[in-house]
Design brief:
Distance between the termini: 40 Å
Number of helices: 12
Oligomer: single chain
Shape: globular
Strand content: 5-15%
CATH superfamily: NAD(P)-binding Rossmann-like Domain
Number of domains: 1
CATH class: Alpha Beta
């Protein structure tokens, strides 16, 4: 095609697009705010309450209760007869995962630090799925506590097939100067140290075909200006996942991670001031935070050897945004 013909065609295309842009601007269509994206089985809440929680508050104290039951998810025996241990399983993502694991046929042990009422609610939900639930108060900063939780799980269920490292500590800070050594140690010792200790405690009981699933975070992929210590631990957890996957593959044990974006759980309302909670998640491409039931199927996928038997060492982003990795 001659150059002049090509230029004329491109000019015509430009004029057409300019005309479309002018029409949209005059009609006000370009300024109309669209509702947050809803692509799941049911519409999820788009507005969050401006609410701050105290450290000792429960998930039940949230004005908008997180959705964790996933009523449209039908189990298909993917984890039938297995046993799982989930740290931080009393609320949030951990609770949602416990429920779907039970729906897939697994007995579940959960650990909690202090929220006993939340833990008992998780127990009721798991038992409603027809499976056993063992509730254990545990501090992942203590190796003895980790060993005790694993021993109780194996004693009760006779086996351990899936370990989900999920317990976490998070506090925001405006500057690195606000993060003293005491806080730094608490964050690292809980988030990364807890994963190391619980995995070491569980490993003697994990047989060929077992798996470990770690909860990472989108901030471990892209960083966070106001979650420096927390984001650093999540990045380390992603590296830990890949390294442990290589280390344990000769034993036939898979290791993967899920990297959630913003999720409506007690973690962030406990950390953030109320006015920031109200806008939590709005910077994602979905323009809203996820509900725990939108994360839990990813854990089922990674736990089930039927679904992911040839997958190890991945960090699965469930972030509500394009280009998470």
């Amino acid at each position: 095609m001659p150059i002049t013909a090509t230029l004329e065609k491109q000019k015509a295309i430009q004029k057409k697009q300019d005309r479309l842009d002018r029409n949209k601007k005059s009609s006000g269509a370009s300024n109309a705010r669209k509702p947050p994206a809803q692509t799941g089985a049911r519409a999820q809440p788009a507005k969050l309450p401006a609410q701050h929680l105290d450290v000792d508050d429960q998930e039940s104290d949230l004005k908008l209760r997180p959705r964790f039951l996933a009523p449209d998810y039908l189990g298909s025996r993917k984890l039938q007869g297995q046993a799982a241990l989930i740290t931080g399983g009393d609320s949030g993502i951990g609770r949602a995962v416990a429920i779907l694991f039970a729906r897939e046929g697994a007995d579940v042990a959960i650990t909690y630090l202090s929220s006993q009422d939340d833990a008992e609610e998780t127990r009721r939900c798991v038992e409603a799925e027809g499976r056993q639930c063992l509730v254990l108060q545990s501090d992942v900063k203590s190796l003895a506590s980790c060993k005790k939780a694993v021993a109780a799980t194996v004693k009760t269920f006779g086996r351990l097939d899936v370990l989900v490292n999920n317990a976490a500590f998070q506090k925001h800070a405006d500057s690195i100067e606000d993060i003293d050594d005491e806080r730094l140690q608490e964050t690292w010792d809980t988030n990364l140290g807890g994963y190391f200790r619980m995995t070491r405690a569980a490993l003697p009981h994990l047989k060929e075909g077992a798996c470990v699933i770690n909860t990472g975070s989108v901030v471990g992929l892209r960083g966070s200006a106001h979650l420096l210590d927390y984001a650093a631990t999540k990045g380390a957890i992603h590296a830990f996942t890949k390294s442990l996957a290589s280390n344990l593959l000769p034993r036939g044990i898979r290791v993967n991670a899920v990297a959630p974006g913003p999720v409506w759980t007690p973690l962030n309302p406990t950390d953030l001031p109320a006015e920031k909670v109200a806008t939590f998640g709005q910077k994602t491409d979905f323009e809203r935070a996820a509900q725990p039931e939108e994360l839990s199927p990813a854990y089922v996928f990674l736990a089930s050897s039927v679904c992911s038997g040839y997958i190890t060492g991945i960090v699965l982003p469930v972030t509500g945004s394009v280009g998470a990795i």
